[in-house]
Amino acid sequence: MTLKLSDLPEVSFVEKDINQILNDMIRGYEQAYFEQTGVRKILRPGDPIRIFLYSQALRELQLRVIIDDSAKQNLLKYSRGDFLEGLGAFSRTNRFDATASRVRTKFNLSEARPVDETIPQGTRVSPGGDIYFAVMEDTVVPAGQMSVEFLTECLQVGVVGNGFTPGQINILVDPLPWIATVENTEESLGGIDREGDDSFRDRIHLAPEGFSVAGPTGAYEYFTREYSPLVEDVLITSPSAGVVDIRLLLKDGDLPTQTFLEGINVYLSDKERRPLTDNVLVNAPITVSYNLDVTYYIRSDDSLTETELKAQIEAAIDEYITWQRSKIGRDVNPSELMARIILAGAKRADVVSPIFATIAENEVAVIGTKTVIYGGLE
Questions:
Q1: pLDDT attached to residue 212
Q2: Which of 3, 23, 96, 102 is most buried, with most CB under 10 Å away?
Q3: Which structural domains are found in the chain, ordered by start?
Q4: Residue 276 DSSP SS3
Q5: Chain centroid to CA 124
Q6: What are phi and psi of 348, to 5 degrees?
């Protein structure tokens, strides 16, 4: 079992207790004074020399903090920024750069064309606002065909292009006289911001699992996360001999689209990653729906901050919904919901649902209906 970085003991390369540093300086001064003069001198509180040594102890502390931090950049648990990229170089693990979202888009013709027509590369479609998706290469619409479907790519990198559900990207920005309508046929996905330190650190830690082709659970998990930093959680099982069942969730518990699953399946099935005898299946976890019905109350003493507390409590409920769906096999846990509501500032809460429910290892709990009622001050 791979040891988690959080399980490693805390280390410190230098002493950083200001009192210890000051005491060492005082003892050092008193000893040096005696060796030079033969007189025992005691630096009492208020002595000008002791005050001066205290100022130097503070400078020494700052220097030691810098030294300790610099030394820790050689350890994966603490490293960050460019230092972390230096550690990644040992295992040939590179940080993910920002990429653009992609989505399958359907172009519907006003009528069938007598000859082949071409949708030019760069033709833009949009959900509105300043976000545009463009045709990635010249695409031929065969004569007599009423529609064509293919990938388009967001012109802005990052997560800004993610999350547009089917039908929302429906504006043809660069008109073609024979195109009647456009629409995305799946949720846009795949856009990522530059990878953060936490995700990058975890992949470096998993990197030794990928030194050979996949086979062990850790190796398949490594290559799955290597495909995209959007991958948040991975479950690897083998339901039968030679079959590798991979279930995955994306950031914030989002379910992967079919296009994303197909892409990662192709990536994992490469002969340099997959053993010849393995049959790799990549799917989203099975979804189990639960309903949420909560009434919460705020203390009368908190009436002056009632509006702010209501916002905090309802944000905490939304965070619970995200937490619940962000881990495969996580049981539906109303105790977690209650704790978050109380910590957000509520006096009490009546949680009608959800009730505790066990979730199978290949399932994920997602919200069905959501009812949140503010019961008032009491």
A1: 67
A2: 102
A3: 11-72 (no CATH), 100-184 (no CATH), 212-284 (3.30.300), 287-377 (no CATH)
A4: coil
A5: 29
A6: -160, 170
